[in-house]
Amino acid sequence: MEGLVILLVATVGISFFAEIIFSRPDLGGILQGYIPKPETLQNQEMLYIAIGILGATVMPHNLYLHSSIVQTRDWEATSEKRWEAIKFSTIDSTIALSLALFINSAILIVSAATFHFSGNQNVAEIQDAYKLLTPLLGVSAASAIFGVALLASGQSSTLTATLAGQIVMEGFLQFSLPSWLRRLVTRLLAIIPALIAIIFFGENSTSSLIVLSQVILSLQLPFAVIPLVMFTSNHRLMGEFVNPLWLKTLAGLVAIIIVCLNIWLLLQTIFSV
């Protein structure tokens, strides 16, 4: 299962790497784009997109998934082997999050390089982007590669979300379902809201629904990050594996920033209505 997910994520990464090469973006502009700007906090629409990217990159349920993966490894119950398991788990999570950051960055980079600077700033829907990629980039395979990336991304997200749900149910709630029933329920929970949105609001509502779901993921992120930081910083629970002071401080700061950004977005949304 891990091999399949790695293959799907690698497909997405390679596809968007190719799209970046086709679109020939400005490297200086890319580097400047990673520098946080005060304007993002002042502009509700910019903050909304930024929060959505945060939720799409980290995804709170994957924190549980990566933690659970450690238990599937063949490590011995000794201090040395546990340190080894922690080391490789850290590498695994770092690579996964780095790939997620690259893919989400690549989507913005390709969009800006292909549409914004060509006078097509009104392209906001996936279907429009798919149709215009080939003529604007002059590469016949550009649209097909984009479609493959979307397909692989959807399958990967579905697999990891279903696995994470299984882990939470069986590990925290001590509640288990047959595989076929679990898949049926999770697929229906995912498909029904999308179908309702498309039926009542039209096909163009899908992009808004995707961004909204990513913002909701970010709003849920503190509920996964804060307990994770608290538990791994508790010497009584962790013993010699407890977080060092520098990691406690850094992790706590990150958690505070996430909470503050989410609260600020909620306040802006409430008072702008």
Describe the overall structure:
- It is a single chain.
- It is built from 12 helices and no strands.
- Helix 5 packs across helix 10.
- With 273 residues, it is mainly α.
- It has one domain.
Residue fraction in strands? under 5%
- Low-confidence region ranges: none
Rg computed from alpha carbons, rounded to a whole number of angstroms: 20 Å
Fraction of residues in H or I helices: over 70%
The end-to-end span amounts to: 45 Å
The residue-averaged pLDDT reads: 83
Task: Describe this protein with a few key phrases.
273 residues, mainly alpha
Summary of the model, kept short:
With 273 residues, the protein is mostly helical. It has helices spanning 2-23, 27-33, 38-42, 44-58, 60-69, 79-114, 126-137, 142-171, 179-201, 205-232, 235-238, 245-272. It has 12 helices and no strands.
SSE topology:
Elements: H1 2-23, H2 27-33, H3 38-42, H4 44-58, H5 60-69, H6 79-114, H7 126-137, H8 142-171, H9 179-201, H10 205-232, H11 235-238, H12 245-272
Helix pairs in contact: 1-6, 1-8, 4-6, 4-10, 4-12, 5-8, 5-10, 7-8, 10-12
